[in-house]
Amino acid sequence: MRFHHSARLSAISASNARRRPTLKNSHQPSTTLKPLAFIGRRTIFIQTEETPNTNALKFLPNQSILPPGLESSFIEYLNPKSTLKPPYTSLLASKLMSNSDITSVFYGTNFITVTKSPDADWMYIKPEIFSLITEALTSGAPIVNVSKKNSQELNDSDVGKDSLSHDQNDSEVVGMIKELLELRIRPAIQEDGGDIDFKGFQDGQVLLKLRGACRTCDSSTVTLKNGIEAMLMHYIEEVKGVKQVLDEEEEVALREFARFEEKLHQQKDSEDKALGKTPTASSTSGLSGPETS
Fold this sequence. Notes:
It holds the Pfam family NifU. GO terms for molecular function: iron ion binding; iron-sulfur cluster binding. This is NifU-like protein. Residues 1-30, 264-293 are annotated as: Disordered. Helix 2 packs antiparallel against helix 3 (122-139). By secondary structure, the protein is of the alpha+beta class. It contains 7 helices and 11 strands. The strands form 3 sheets. The protein has a 6-stranded antiparallel sheet with strand order 1-2-3-7-6-4, with helices on one face. The protein has a 3-stranded mixed sheet with strand order 9-10-11, covered by helices on one side. A hairpin with a 4-residue loop joins strand 6 and strand 7 (112-116). It has 2 domains: 31-156, Scaffold protein Nfu/NifU, N-terminal domain (Ribosomal Protein S8, Chain: A, domain 1); 162-244, 2-Layer Sandwich (GMP Synthetase, Chain A, domain 3).
């Protein structure tokens, strides 16, 4: 059942609603097309695209990646253990993440985004990635093996039903937010090698989680504020802002970074005092982890 929001929804679902969103500034992906292997008469091509995240590359084989019938639009692996954990195990992701320079593997419907550590060089990683993807595709085995899910696995898994799909319990505003995210936002995020999760709507704030290449991108805050937030607030008056939902590890990293900055500042103040200079106000006094609702 679809939402019917009369005049309000028409502003979102107008004839131009399915145009490619313009969330990026001037990013134009560079593309390399490489024939890598043969299955009988069929040639496997793996196309690569750069993303706004310099540490993430998007690989597009001429085959589907996600298994048919999967409720989610993506699967993301953030550590080697997760690649072998039901209900969505992947031998390819496991092999990719056995390389210590690779920090995450993201599967979209027809693409794979690989993220590396900042100090690693693509020159040395890309050949291995091409080789492993080719091996997986030529084997004929599914990229993702879906096992029967029990309740514990569903709770442990970070992948489930598509968060932008319609739920009969959604309010009118939530339905409009989901539809706008699906039609205008998600295509641009997927083009950049990622995806977006809707985590809720509370006190006028839309709670979102960025995935894939967008998760660790330096411009993710700009994307959220200048792109997604501006568009949602323009079409839906109930929306007052957008907040990014972070994993526990990401929140810990932010807190550690804040403590590190404070320590550096205190050290500088001590040095300034020894030199007879006036200590400056703490630059981290207002720095804290992300707001939670």
